[in-house]
What does this fold into?
Amino acid sequence: GENVEQHPSTLSVQEGDSAVIKCTYSDSASNYFPWYKQELGKGPQLIIDIRSNVGEKKDQRIAVTLNKTAKHFSLHITETQPEDSAVYFCAASIRNYGQNFVFGPGTRLSVLP
Amino acid sequence: DVKVTQSSRYLVKRTGEKVFLECVQDMDHENMFWYRQDPGLGLRLIYFSYDVKMKEKGDIPEGYSVSREKKERFSLILESASTNQTSMYLCASTMDTEAFFGQGTRLTVV
It folds into this structure.
């Protein structure tokens, strides 16, 4: 089955700096890669996603890149702000196959003022 | 806004008790999931359901069962709670791609 690894497990950056979180997956059939943000006391919430026919996607300060050959994808957050502090999860799934997501172990991001 | 509501934020139960965790979604989603969240392990899938009265085992189904009698409601059952089931439990629903999560239930088994 699919296995998703995620690094680093914790990340501290100064406000205004960039943050990068990396994930790898094992199943070449996976074709949908979402990123979820979990704030304290809340459930995870989708922040950005990418499909396997796209190499990069941006949404304001957030971007995701995908390298299908190497089976890895990354989340990039620029100009970090204190409200970006949260736990971030990457996931992989086969779209249109029941959406059975496999999640990475998570990255705790702390943005220091 | 899609809403996924879990019946309890915090629960404390005794070893051996039967425990019910309830989840309700209001968007007519077909797919519903129960995950367990533990530090360093991420979200692990316990059970999921694609339709009413249908259920599929996830990666860690041992010690759990589920019930889906109505489309909007998906229940997780711990038949005989044990201390190693102390964890955060998250319910989610999805129709196409995006998964919508509830706020989580932190269960402590003593």
